[in-house]
Amino acid sequence: xxxxxxxxxxxxxxxxxxxxxxxxxxxxxxxxxxxxxxxxxxxxxxxxxxxxxxxxxxxxxxxxxxxxxxxxxxxxxxxxxxxxxxxxxxxxxxxxxxxxxxxxxxxxxxxxx
Length: 113
Description:
Helix content is about 5%, strand content about 45%. By secondary structure, it is mainly β. The chain has one domain (about 5-110): CATH 2.40.50. It has a 6-stranded antiparallel sheet. Strands 2-3-4 form a 3-stranded antiparallel sheet, with no helix packed on it. A hairpin with a 2-residue loop joins β6 (about 65-75) and β7 (about 75-80). Pfam families: DUF6717 (PF20475).
């Protein structure tokens, strides 16, 4: 099993989405605060709407951009907090395409394509 995962989110019809054919996801949207967190993570990234790289892992790794802490389960998905920014976002059940259970922490690195 991978310990680092990579996706390339982009905007479609004004929403942040991503494709990952390896796990049968196409234009999977980020909603319920996860979209606002992506706005914050990419605020200084030119052309982020056309796509950017996102690496994520349940363990810290060199150069991570943000750490998110599991808060609670709801509607089959999971809420994560970004304590340093006092933000939270919901990750839908597509999270389980990558993890057997919701990780207690998620580390994320974003960078331009």
